[in-house]
Write a structure and sequence with these properties.
The protein has about 525 residues and is α/β, with parallel strands linked by helices. It folds into 3 domains: about 120 residues; about 110 residues, no CATH class; about 190 residues, Ribonuclease Inhibitor (Leucine-rich repeat, LRR (right-handed beta-alpha superhelix)), CATH 3.80.10. Helix content is about 30%, strand content about 20%. It has 15 helices and 24 strands. The strands form 6 sheets. It has an 8-stranded mixed beta sheet. A 6-stranded mixed beta sheet has the order 19-20-21-22-23-24. A 4-stranded parallel beta sheet has the order 12-14-16-18. Strand 22, helix 10 and strand 23 form a beta-alpha-beta unit.
Length: about 525
């Protein structure tokens, strides 16, 4: 399969090989067929067969344009562009306008080697190595206006940097393109670019990228500008290319994500990034949404930024003078944030009602770092409610807090028991980081509590309720004592009545006589 340009479009056709190539291929296979017993043996046969397939050189004319005085030539297996001049009939050379080089290991790409084709305007390199480029050094070289790079590679540059990749890739620099002074159209077909220089004005080159991949990074944003202005066309199937075979980077980066979508997110991120903050696109999730990090640390903020890029997943606001962060719970742009860091600020409280509305039924992880602030109380009821409801739903998306180095009020027994439960949640959710050890009572607390770890406090004994003034037994004893006193008083009264008046007590007169 080879590609060429005709009528402003890229066409791909199949080219039949000469009979001797088929004979060589069949001879290679039949010679080792009895020895093929394993997969490794098959790979060796394939490698040897491919080598033999490419060792033969030939050029042939693509039928279709002979009558109009133009010729399209396909050369295969050549090691230099000058080989095409020796393999094409001298009488046909002046009429060649399109040259396609396929399955070749070109040691040099230079217009000097194409002087045999003065009418050449289109050069197409298919499935070939493109290692060295050279500027024209002689007069009379053809004016190549269209360059097609179809499935080309130059992995030697990557290997020199100890970068391993499973895909054939190459770099395309401005210096290389300047070696084709008359170039107007550049087609990059099913190729993977690990580096693409920004084209400087005058913008006389139109770029067409079909399939393949381009490295997604900030330096590639100029391609999006060219696409918007019509100076470049990138197909929807073109993906991001990362020159690595590391499984971690293959999963958590831009590998095989669509280039236009990814760079569109990147462009929006840079547009919406808050002033003086730094924003970074860390990767694309499996749901094709970006992972954007926003860093606004140490820039003197006194409040939460009003706007951040859409789909931001982490926000760092450390080392500022922020006192209130309720905007995190109310602003829709913070809805998808799964990590927010507010260390070394002046925060004194957290709104429990707004937090519950924010974290309720949340399907994303949430980590809020509030260490090194001025918190003394915490909305334990609302946070515990979120935990309880999450456990009822058997979800793993529990909010995580980092609360160390705050002056926690351990004297308030209406707050301390519930807060200690929250600390235990933090312990079991962050047992590897162990930030719960830094959650301590404030220095101004009771002498036996100052700077004590909240998790290790004996809350039951510390917050034991005061005993009542009177127990039931005390009440019973008092009642009996009162009755006894009344009885004694009545006895004394009756005794004095009898001594003075001889009058017996009333109850005695009512008793029957013997």
């Amino acid at each position: 399969m080879v590609c060429y340009v005709r009528g402003g479009k890229v066409h791909c056709v199949r080219v039949l090989d000469m009979w001797r190539r088929s004979c060589l291929l069949w001879a290679a296979v039949t010679a080792v067929l009895p020895a093929i017993t394993t997969v490794a043996a098959w790979e060796d046969v394939f490698s040897s067969t491919k080598r033999i397939w490419r060792e033969s050189r030939f050029c042939q004319v693509v039928p279709g344009l002979e009558k109009v005085g133009q010729l399209e030539v396909v050369c295969e297996g050549i090691k230099s562009l000058s080989d095409a001049g020796t393999l094409v009939d001298v009488k046909q050379q002046p009429r060649v306008t399109t040259l396609t080089v396929t399955y070749s290991n070109l040691t040099r790409i230079a217009l000097d080697d194409l002087q045999a084709f003065p009418a050449l305007t289109t050069l197409s390199l298919n499935n070939s190595v493109t290692s060295d480029w050279a500027s024209p050094s002689v007069v009379g070289v053809p004016k190549v206006t269209c360059l097609i790079l179809d499935r080309c590679w130059d992995n030697y540059a990557l290997e020199a940097k100890n970068i391993k990749t499973t895909r054939p890739a190459f770099a395309l620099t401005l210096e290389q393109l300047n070696m084709l002074p008359d170039l107007k159209e550049l087609y990059i077909v099913e190729s993977f670019l690990y580096h693409l220089d920004r084209l400087q004005p005058p913008p006389h080159i139109h770029i067409i990228v079909e399939g393949g991949g381009i490295e997604c990074r900030a330096e590639s944003l100029w391609v999006m500008d060219w696409v918007s202005s019509g100076k470049a066309d990138v197909s929807n199937s073109t993906r991001c290319f990362v020159p690595t075979s590391d499984p971690f980077h293959m999963k958590y980066s831009f590998v095989d994500k669509f280039f236009l979508i990814t760079m569109g997110y990147w462009k929006e991120m840079e547009r919406d990034c808050p002033e003086r903050c730094k924003c970074l696109l860390n990767g694309i999730r499996d749901n094709h949404l970006p992972m954007i990090g926003v860093n606004c640390s140490g820039i003197g903020l006194s409040h939460i930024p009003e706007s951040i890029p859409a789909h931001s997943h982490s926000v760092y606001l450390d080392n500022n003078t922020i006192t209130n962060f309720t905007r995190v719970f109310t602003h829709p742009l913070y809805r998808n944030v799964d990590k927010i860091s507010l260390t070394y600020n002046k925060i004194t409280s957290m709104d429990g009602r707004l937090f519950y509305q924010f974290a309720h039924n949340r399907s994303l992880d949430l980590c809020i770092n509030l260490s090194h602030n001025q918190l003394s109380k915490f909305p334990v009821k609302e946070v515990q409610r979120v935990y309880d409801e999450a456990l009822e739903r058997d979800t793993q998306h529990l909010p995580i807090f980092v609360l160390g180095y705050n002056p926690w009020d351990c004297d308030d027994c209406s707050f301390l028991p519930g807060f200690q439960k929250i600390v235990y949640h933090i312990k079991y959710s962050q047992n590897s980081v162990r930030p719960y050890l830094d959650i301590r009572c404030k220095e101004g607390a009771r002498s036996d509590l100052a700077m004590q770890q909240v998790m290790k406090l004996d809350v039951v004994s510390l917050c034991r309720p005061d005993p009542p003034l009177l127990t039931p037994m005390d009440v019973l004893v008092i009642c009996l004592a009162i009755l006894l006193i009344l009885f004694l008083l009545n006895f004394l009264h009756n005794f004095f009545q009898y001594r003075r008046h001889g009058k017996l007590p009333w109850i005695i007169t009512k008793l029957p006589s013997c």
